[in-house]
């Protein structure tokens, strides 16, 4: 690759990074553009340059002329006709614009919730167990996201990749409720998930209570609801120890704070299947 080709590749990669950054996550951008996430990452880091057909996808989604994608970033911005995520008249586009706007407006209200958490949920097929998950809430580019690691095994047993799921969630604050929307895992498999939490108004309160709607990623993928609790973790804790503690634990495990056990073990908080068949 000669110097000119390297410069062209770098310019296209910079423009693609700018456009993709308008979406709340890489998973959402991948789904909206119809591009495999692994391939999209290659475009973003400049290790691969999109074909003409792929550039036309960016052109259609962002209302920018295809040839403008090879221009310097400042010139491409001027060539854009209707902003970074235009209204194309589809429900998906409307949803993305609303979600992006809600995420940006929510950032100040969600700033106090940035930190590390254990997330506890009931497991529908294992009524005597809770799933303890590790989550990090952070703010990036004006958007609040939660990075979640789930381990579907027992603490103390060897880790296996097939028992682990990593995902990213967009966090918003809407009408006095904290909402999280699951944007999928690192394998491009979107497992729908939505949770609503009641915000805390007491300084020093270490728990967030709420309810989650989700589905399984295997079998007939039944939909279920479950109570969920976030336990805030102190900043001086060891990450490795917290990760080792994740997994399926008995409902009466003494390492779980009594407030969490009492909340999740209430009869009205038992997980419920919906539309399974």
UniProtKB/TrEMBL annotation:
One of its GO terms (molecular function) is DNA binding. Residues 30-69 form the HTH cro/C1-type domain. InterPro entries: Cro/C1-type_HTH, Lambda_DNA-bd_dom_sf. This is HTH cro/C1-type domain-containing protein. Pfam families: HTH_3. SUPFAM superfamilies: lambda repressor-like DNA-binding domains. CDD domains: HTH_XRE.
